[in-house]
Amino acid sequence: MTTSWFESADLVSRFKELHSSNPNAGSPSTLSANAIPAVVKARLAKAGLAFQTLSPLLQQAVLWDMGLIVGDVNGVDTLMQVLVGANTTMSSIAYTFAEFSASPAGKGLEQTSCAFNGGTPFLRQKIMAGLALLPSLKCAVELVSVDGQSALLAQDATNAATFVPEPRLYKHQDATQGWTMPAIHFLPRIAQGKPMEAPWGECPKNADHQALIIPCEPKFFRAESANTFLPLPSPVMTAWLEDTTANTDDYHHRHHTSSLGGINLYAISLYRIEEADVFIHRPLGSGAFADVMLGDYKGREVAVKRLLPGRATVREVQALVDEITLLAGFSSPYIVEFVGATWDKPIDLACVLEFMDLGDLRHYLSHQRPREFLWQDKLACIHNIVEGLVYLHSFPIIHRDLKSRNILLDSTKGTKLTDFGVSREQSQETMTNGVGTGRWMAPEILKYNHYSVAADIFSFGMILSELSTHQLPYTDRLNPYDGKPLIDTAVMAMVISDEIKPTFAPDMPMFLKDMAMHCIAHEATERPTAAVLSYTLRQHMTGTIEEETS
């Protein structure tokens, strides 16, 4: 007999149901505290919780909900990030046998049918056209080291009342057909790296060894893949965390005593570092609401962003709290690293970041001649910008103020994105809240205040023009009446009407110019995604940049 979990990826609800009957079911996570990503800690901190204090089932549920699955990478258990389609939760990634049997991958092909104690037969994949399967899959993840040596797809026959799934990644391959792809297995392993799965083409010894298997495509293997986004938090998981918070004895006391001056700092208390350990040396820059200072934290050079003394409002303090919360959840070599936060009172709040010794891209371009900043080096810079966007857009988070001033360079760490004061997840609010700098802004923002991840792609195209000419966008465009450079309002009006394009230097590699022109397409739907840009760059970075120049 089948259960509601027969072909269901809603593990959060399944874990919650098990938890209600036995809160101590399952095994505690064996991952160290350092192995838990900052984004998980940040989500739990908002709820007043910590990963290590959660019950085993709640630990597993949080990781699943955020698309984090354990896999063996060179003998080490590692959390791997699953990507899904836009606006999708992990509960939607299951691939049913009805879908498989109707697809070119499995239509009319033999499968393994397993009946236990003479009951309902449950299916396991046996024969398929592997490459034809990829476009219909609903998740993407990197390959791991251990081969499952079993079916790639299976229905669930386990006892829903007692069986505790333990999601784990294995790879599957067919050398004859020429494919390798990952799959998520719900069956616990029997020993280090070894699954308890029945061998390919065979049935398990009993129903509790017939657990769900969900195939995924290799991450970024196909340029046209829709599985490039981080899964959305599920309402079930959010409600479960809220219930857990409400039952935590000391939460309300901590929550209310951490709210100072109308600003709730509890959400960032996990990231607080001692103000006495941060030494300020000199100014690095100043903006409309904040200064950035060069400092030192425990022997490490850092950049300290703090609100302008005497001018900060409650709204600006809350915006910095939100930026700190966002940065603390990032973990990417292409995003400036968050170190911590200091404060005595909310008005003194400061964000401590890694220091990038070459400054911002705008400053660097203005002090380098084009012949001194070669295209080979620019390509490495472009690559990091694109990978930063791939990372952000997978949430999906829109930077919303991407420009050369918000790209930092370092002599050893390369290029990273910074300044997330106006960044947020794509929503109705972000689509209608105009921010940014005019010369980098997409026409749909200037005209309708409409934001999407495509707006960042347009800004990236403008940055490519800067890398080409070393000048601000449209600097060479003159007013026909007085011969002076066009003012910002004139530029923005011409961008809206599609009457102006930025200049590109003659020595710019053609593939990069083509990429830039696609990025600044007037229609947002015609611009490539960050994942497509990443794929294109990887194709060209295998050759020499000179070969692309004409």
Automatic annotation (TrEMBL):
Q: What is this protein called?
A: Protein kinase domain-containing protein
Where ATP binds, per the record, is at K305
SMART domains (UniProt xref): S_TKc
The protein's UniProt keywords, in alphabetical order, are: ATP-binding, Kinase, Nucleotide-binding, Serine/threonine-protein kinase, Transferase
GO terms of molecular function:
ATP binding; protein serine/threonine kinase activity
Question: Could you tell me which InterPro entries the record lists for this protein?
Answer: Kinase-like_dom_sf (IPR011009), Prot_kinase_dom (IPR000719), Protein_kinase_ATP_BS (IPR017441), Ser-Thr/Tyr_kinase_cat_dom (IPR001245), Ser/Thr_kinase_AS (IPR008271), Ser/Thr_Kinases-Pseudokinases (IPR051681)
Q: Which Pfam families match?
A: Pkinase
Instruction: Specify whether Zinc is a keyword of the entry.
Output: no
Domain of life, source organism: Eukaryota
Q: For the Protein kinase domain, which residue ranges apply?
A: 278-543
